[in-house]
Design a protein that fits this description.
By secondary structure, the protein is mainly α. Helices cover 67% and strands 3% of the residues.
């Protein structure tokens, strides 16, 4: 396949897709902070040489795959996304189809005790819960905006890169490598910039989720679902960064092999 076409297809098909890996467990909670996961992510390579150092030979396919550390981080993040999404979908189904004897759900956060610590018990506690969740919601909005901005930046740069590749000779490998290295360096720099801003917002959500024991001690089904939504938003940010790293390792190593 033409190397330019392969590059274009690989980026589009892989970068923003999520695969299904696991089945949900009843009563699942994600009992951990997610900011440390962000800190542990492998950053994308800044050039083709760095990308080549992050692949290994696969004897089964006679091809190259990314190192286990990157594969493992990607899969663990996706497993949690799949788990939480499945649970939230099930909760939505249960809400839309209650048993005949069930009372209709109340609007907003339910009154009375919401967890074993008494949060949500009375007007002041209700206000505290509302303010906490408002802070988390704002952080989630910020994370969504950052993700969309980063994706737009990559797609815009990708379009320029494809045009440059199109305007070079197919046999001019040196020019191809130079173009891709600049693209990879740009992505690495944007990754580090957006990672810092995402980290600030992940920490804010972590603080709220941890305050409510990650949903473990929360009795309110609604609050528990909202906590899962917060964690899902965090995981979607982690998934984007992990996808970018994996894809640019593959892109860079493929062009390295064309030297």
């Amino acid at each position: 396949m033409n190397i330019k076409l392969r590059f274009l297809i690989a980026l589009i098909l892989f970068l923003f897709t999520n695969n299904i890996y696991s089945q949900p467990r009843n009563g699942f909670i994600l009992n951990r902070d997610l900011t440390p996961v962000l800190d542990s992510l492998v950053s994308p390579p800044g050039n083709c040489d760095e990308a080549w150092s992050l692949v290994i030979f696969d004897t089964l396919t006679n091809g190259f795959v990314v190192v286990n550390q990157v594969e493992d981080q990607n899969k663990k993040i996706q497993d949690n996304i799949t788990e939480i999404t499945s649970i939230l979908d099930q909760k939505k189904t249960d809400t839309n189809n209650p048993p005949p004897s069930a009372k209709p759900p109340s609007k907003g956060l339910p009154p009375g005790n919401h967890d074993q610590h008494g949060r949500g018990n009375g007007a002041e506690e209700f206000k505290d819960v509302w303010e906490d969740f408002q802070d988390a919601n704002l952080a989630m909005i910020n994370m969504t905006e950052i993700r969309e901005q980063f994706k737009d930046e990559i797609k815009d740069m990708q379009s320029k890169v494809n045009e440059k590749l199109h305007n070079t000779l197919e046999s001019d490998r040196k020019a191809h490598i130079n173009i891709i290295n600049k693209f990879m360096k740009f992505t690495e720099e944007q990754y580090e910039k957006h990672k810092l801003t995402l980290r600030e917002n992940l920490k804010k959500v972590d603080a709220v989720v941890k305050k409510y024991d990650y949903g473990d001690a929360v009795k309110s089904s609604k609050i528990r679902s909202e906590i899962l939504k917060m964690q899902l938003s965090q995981l979607e940010s982690l998934k984007l960064l992990s996808n970018i790293t994996k894809e640019f390792i593959l892109i860079g190593s493929n062009f390295y092999r064309e030297k």
